[in-house]
Write a structure and sequence with these properties.
The chain has a domain of 172 residues: P-loop containing nucleotide triphosphate hydrolases (Rossmann fold, 3-Layer(aba) Sandwich), CATH 3.40.50. It is globular. The chain has 253 residues and is α/β, with parallel strands linked by helices. Strands 3-2-4-1-5-6-7 form a seven-stranded parallel β-sheet, with helices on both faces.
C-alpha cells in the first residue's frame, strides 16, 4: 500500500520545488513515486504532473462561472477539489508506486483550514504523512519560528496524521543560523531565551504558547533540506519508512 506524502507550508516555502526534488531523489534510488498536484491555480509546475487536479477544476472557469476574483475562486475551488476526492482516489489506484507526492496549494489556508480538506485526506488514504515546511527566512527570527511552530501545530491538530517538520531551503542559511534553528526545535528553553534576547516582550501568553507546543510533542527537532543539492532527502525517506514500515527499506525496482 502506497504512502501519501503531503507537502504543506506557507506561500513561498518551497513545496513545489521540494516535490520535484524528492521525486527526482526517489527515482535516482530506484523507488517509484507519483506526483499529485492539488492546486487548481498552479502555473508552470517544474515537474511532470502524474495526477493533476486541473484536469477536474479550472480556476479561470470558476472565476467566470461564479463571477469571483482570484481569491474567492481559490476558496471555492478548494472545496471543489475535495468534492472530486473520490475520482482522484480512483485515478491514484490505477498507479503502482511506493509514494504519492502531494503538492498542496500555495496558500496553505486553502488546504489546512478547510473542513473539506480533512475529508479529502481521509478519502485519499489513511497511510498519510504531512511534511510541514518551515520558511528559512522566517525561521531565523525567534518570533517567526514560534509563529511557524504554531501553524505546524494547527496543521497537525486538524489532520491528526503523522507529521514531519522540514526546514526548507536550508542552503540559504549560514551555519550559525542553521545550528540556532536546530537548537530551538529541540530545546524550547533556548527558544524562550532567544525571544527574551531579541527584545520581544515576554508575556504570559508567549510562555503558555511555548509550553503548549512542548506538550504537543513538537519539541522533536527539525530536518534541514535543500533542493539545490538534494540535501536532506534521505532524512525525509527515513522518517516516512520509520512511520509506516518500521524503518525497513523499500524494494528497489
Amino acid at each position: 500500500m502506497s504512502v501519501n506524502l503531503y507537502f504543506v507550508g506557507t506561500a513561498g516555502s518551497g513545496k513545489t520545488t521540494l516535490t520535484k526534488t524528492f521525486k527526482d531523489w526517489m527515482e535516482l534510488h530506484g523507488y517509484q513515486a507519483v506526483t499529485v498536484n492539488l492546486d487548481p491555480g498552479a502555473d508552470d509546475l517544474p515537474y511532470n504532473v502524474d495526477i493533476d487536479v486541473r484536469d477536474w477544476i479550472s480556476l479561470r472557469e470558476v472565476m467566470a462561472e461564479h463571477e469571483l476574483g482570484p481569491n474567492g475562486a481559490q476558496i471555492v475551488s478548494a472545496d471543489m477539489v475535495a468534492m472530486n476526492a473520490g475520482e482522484i482516489k480512483d485515478v491514484m489506484e490505477e498507479f503502482e508506486c511506493h509514494y504519492f507526492l502531494i503538492d498542496t496549494p500555495g496558500q496553505m489556508e486553502l488546504f489546512t483550514f478547510r473542513q473539506a480538506s480533512r475529508e479529502m485526506v481521509r478519502t485519499l488514504g489513511e497511510k498519510s504523512l504531512i511534511s510541514f515546511l518551515f520558511d528559512p527566512v522566517l525561521s531565523k527570527q525567534p518570533s517567526g519560528f514560534v509563529s511557524l511552530m504554531t501553524l505546524a501545530a494547527t496543521t497537525q491538530f486538524r489532520f491528526d496524521i503523522p507529521y514531519l517538520p522540514i526546514l526548507s531551503k536550508s542552503d540559504i542559511l549560514s551555519d550559525k543560523e542553521l545550528g540556532m534553528i536546530k537548537k530551538w526545535s529541540k530545546d524550547f528553553w533556548h527558544l524562550d531565551s532567544a525571544l527574551r534576547e531579541s527584545a520581544v516582550t515576554e508575556t504570559q501568553v508567549s510562555i503558555e504558547l511555548i509550553k503548549s507546543l512542548q506538550n504537543m510533542g513538537l519539541q522533536r527537532g527539525i530536518f534541514p533540506v535543500s533542493s539545490v543539492d538534494m540535501y536532506g532527502m534521505e532524512d525525509i525517506y527515513t522518517a516516512v519508512q520509520d512511520a509506516f514500515y518500521g524503518g525497513d527499506d523499500l524494494p528497489v525496482g
